[in-house]
UniProtKB/TrEMBL annotation:
Residues 484-548 are annotated as: Disordered. InterPro entries: CD80_C2-set, Ig-like_dom, Ig-like_dom_sf, Ig-like_fold, Ig_sub, Ig_sub2, Ig_V-set, Nectin/Nectin-like. It comes from Champsocephalus gunnari (Mackerel icefish). It is a single-pass membrane protein. This is Ig-like domain-containing protein. It holds the Pfam family Ig_3. PROSITE patterns: IG_LIKE.
Length: 585
């Protein structure tokens, strides 16, 4: 009993080891595998066994299952003897790989409908035995389709307008794509053949309408369309027209046109004249009847046109009446057309002119508006410049860089004061002179003031008052000249600082004394030096003159200093600076 148990254990271990070392199929992974292919295409039957451990594939054989249950051998490959093809499969099948014992997939280069069925891949290994995989092959046949149009004739009864056929496996499905009123009928036959018929009542208005057949099949991604246009034939309808409504004697190039229509297009057109033959010099050119000469009275009559095609014929009549003279008030068609074209062109030109005028008017209005705005801005700037100039006249500039006419006035006033002082108080108190007396000191040198005028020494109060009145009149004239110069600078549009102002000098005056030198460091800003002696005291009006001279000297010392012959203002924090261009700084 123990021995039997040990043997069973050994057998179980051996079976387990065999199971562990045996290989498996890489493809197909399932024992039963369905496969689909198309006729006239290449078909691949997969079979790949992967060995493990000491296994070895000895032989590979492909079989096809027959309906009676037997197997039909297709091809065999031995690891030593090579491969062999059998029966009707010889030359139609082959292995995919050059080593069939490694990759045993089978190829059918040109698949036929008869190749459908069940196939078996048999693998013989050592030492594990045989293994198999079963593949069921389905062969589809893509549909072969066709459409047969039918030529219809107007007036026929209800009948088939087109038929569509298709053959395939599995059987295809047929439909129609059209807007025509009709009905379709489908029929299926053995072998996967399907037919469809479309029927309707033919009318001439259906000619050229779409009547397409659609073929549906599982092997097609989208339905196959067979395009078709319906053809309905009908006889022509003849219509005669003329290029002129008024036929008169002497008319040139008269002609009549016969249009037939119909389908197919008529090719046979004949002209006749009722009651006789066509007049001489009349010819048929296609659809036209052309008179090759001027019309005559005997050209009047009834003309008939007959048009024929494959289906039938159509006729029309036209009565020609030739008058002796042309009707008044009628305009030929060609002239009427020219009048219409000329009127249209004139209207277009008028419209373009109106557009140009409107655009021009708009731009002129816009330019005028811009000019007005510019004029207002210019006037505003000029007004601002005048106001700035007036403020300049009423203010004292403290900018030492600007030398304006205001400083010239102060300089003239300063020289006038000095001259007045020189007139009021003589240098030599002991000399007694009159208007006809001696000039200057006893040395014979004439004493002059800064304006180049000789110093006159007087003793009497009346002479002093006369000199004072003349001095005041001279100052008034100088101020008026200064104001006139300022107004001229304003009227010219330039800042007053750009207009030079010089103190006018009398022609008879002597040479002027040079301006004092510029102040040096340590000098007083009033510029009082050797050329500016302290004002002397004159008897009589001593208090009045002394007070006036004192105030003038005080103003000069506090607000101005003398430099390079020019009286300049001292810098001040509240001063208003005016730029030479008229802008306030």
């Amino acid at each position: 009993m123990d021995l039997t148990g040990q043997r069973l254990k050994y057998l179980a271990l051996l079976l387990l080891s065999v199971i562990c070392v045996q290989g498996d199929f890489v493809e197909p992974p399932q024992p039963e595998t369905p496969l689909r292919s198309f006729a006239e295409s290449e078909t691949r039957l997969p079979c790949h066994y992967q060995v493990e451990g000491g296994q070895k594939v000895v032989q590979v054989t492909w079989y096809k299952d027959l309906p009676d249950g037997s197997k039909d051998q297709i091809i065999t490959a031995h690891f030593v003897d090579g491969h062999t093809e059998f029966g009707r499969y010889s030359g139609r099948v082959r292995f995919e790989s050059g080593s069939p014992t490694v990759n045993s997939a089978l190829l059918i280069p040109n698949t036929e409908e008869s190749d459908k069925g069940s196939y078996t891949c048999h693998i013989s290994t050592f030492p594990n035995g045989n293994f198999e995989r079963h593949i069921t092959l389905t062969v589809w046949i893509l549909p072969i389709s066709s459409l047969d149009p039918v030529i219809l004739v107007e007036g026929q009864s209800y009948r088939v307008a087109a038929s569509c056929r298709a053959v395939g496996r599995p059987s295809p499905h047929l439909t129609w794509d059209t807007d025509l009123p009709g009905q379709s009928l489908n029929r299926t036959q053995e072998g996967g053949s399907v037919s469809s018929y479309y029927s309707l009542h033919p009318l001439r208005g259906m000619t050229g309408k779409k009547l397409d057949c659609l073929v549906w099949h599982p092997g097609l991604e989208q339905p196959r369309r067979i395009s078709n246009r319906l053809v309905v034939q009908y006889p022509p309808d003849a219509i005669i027209s003329s290029t002129a409504e008024d036929w008169y004697v002497g008319m040139e190039n008269a002609e009549m046109i016969c249009s037939g229509g119909g389908y197919p297009k008529p090719q046979n057109i004949t002209w006749t004249r009722k009651g006789g033959a066509l007049p001489d010099w009349v010819s048929m050119v296609g659809e036209k009847l052309v008179f090759g000469r001027a019309l005559r009275m005997n050209d009047s009559g009834v003309y008939e046109c007959v048009v024929r095609n494959e289906v039938g014929a159509g006729a029309a009549e036209f009565t020609v009446t030739v008058t002796e003279t042309r009707r008044q008030g009628e305009t030929p068609v060609g002239n009427l057309l020219l009048i219409i074209i000329g009127a249209s062109a004139g209207a277009l030109v008028v419209a373009l002119i109106l557009v140009v005028l409107l655009v021009n008017r708009y731009h002129r209005h816009k330019n005028k508006k811009l000019e007005m705005e510019l004029s207002e801005k210019t006037e505003e700037i000029q007004s601002f410049s005048r106001q700035a100039s007036f403020r300049r006249l009423n203010s004292v500039s403290t900018d030492p860089r600007v030398q304006s006419e205001d400083y010239g006035l102060l300089r003239v006033d300063s020289r006038m004061k000095d001259s007045e002082i020189s007139l009021e108080q003589p240098i030599y108190r002991g000399s007694q002179s009159t208007l006809g007396g001696k000039w200057g000191p006893s040395s014979g040198v004439v004493e002059v003031d800064e304006l180049g005028r000789p110093v006159v020494w007087q003793n009497g109060r009346e002479s002093l008052r006369g000199a004072e009145l003349e001095e005041k009149e001279e100052r008034r004239r100088r101020v008026e000249s200064y104001l006139k110069s300022s107004n001229m600078s304003l009227d010219s549009g330039l800042p007053s600082s750009l207009v030079p102002l010089k103190a006018p000098q009398d022609e008879g005056d002597g040479p002027t004394q040079p301006d004092p030198a510029p102040p040096r460091e340590g000098d007083s800003p009033q510029g009082v030096g050797e050329d500016w002696p302290p004002p002397p005291v004159v008897e009589g009006h001593e208090e009045e003159v002394g007070s006036s001279s004192y105030h003038i000297s005080e103003a000069l010392n506090n607000h101005f200093y003398f430099s390079n012959g020019i009286l300049r203002p001292k810098p001040h924090s509240n001063a208003i600076l005016l730029h030479p261009r008229g802008q306030i700084i």
